[in-house]
Amino acid sequence: MFKGFYTVATGMIAQQRKTEILTNNMANANTPGFKADQSTIRSFPDMLLSARGTTNIPTEKGINTLKATEIGALNTGVYLQETLANYTQGTLIETNLTTDIALLNGAMPIDQESGQAGTIFFRLEHPEGGEAYTRNGNFTIDGQGYLVNPQGLYVLSDQGERIQLQNEDFQLSQDGRILVDGQQVATLGVAFSANPDVLIKQDNGLFRSIDGEMLPSAYGQDGVTFALQQNYIEGSNVDAAQSMTELLTAYRAFEANQKVLQAYDKSMDKAVNEIGKV
Fold this sequence. Notes:
The chain contains two helices and 18 strands. It is of the alpha+beta class. α1 (2-27) packs antiparallel against α2. It is elongated and about 110 Å long. It comes from Ureibacillus endophyticus. This is Flagellar hook-basal body protein.
């Protein structure tokens, strides 16, 4: 019976964590560039149970031998195996602000190890050193004339340098060239990740590579095509209706496990307080 407690408890913990992921997705349904998290639940390996007994061999000395009778498999519960971001393209939202820029995925190579398509990001200067990456193109110009993201991180060019524009009167071509009065002043930095599942997702829609290593530039990458759209931002790719359905399913699964746990608790209560008195 105690094994049943553990099995039900693992189910409740897994569904609670899934609920937290789904509620976070729904809370960011209107966050520009947000990539929804996806979770996978997996069961622990089954345990094979068998009963051990003795068998009497009818001999003069009456020999007894040990015998194992197979009972069957016992499930040992489930766990939340991993959480991965969904990097599909979000819808474009027109803002008519020149500092708002959206990334449009074109052709993306498939990673042979993971089987997933690569993706692209804006390059940002991380305050702790190295680079951070984001799909949120809701940029502004700070007091010194530098292009920054909503958290004040500097947007980088394809050369890894800060982009200084002085004011919002600039044009951005679809191939990433930033023009002021018809003259190119920089090329907006765009990084490519062949396997984005290995990236570390942080707060405020930021991603970082393992050990802070820099991702390669998306410009000139074999098989990679993309475009940039000024006056637009990429919206969240959260499907609110699907997330709500999954949230209700997870809640009901949690409730079902909870009722089973209560039944176990009542059975143990009778075993201890009633049967134990006989």
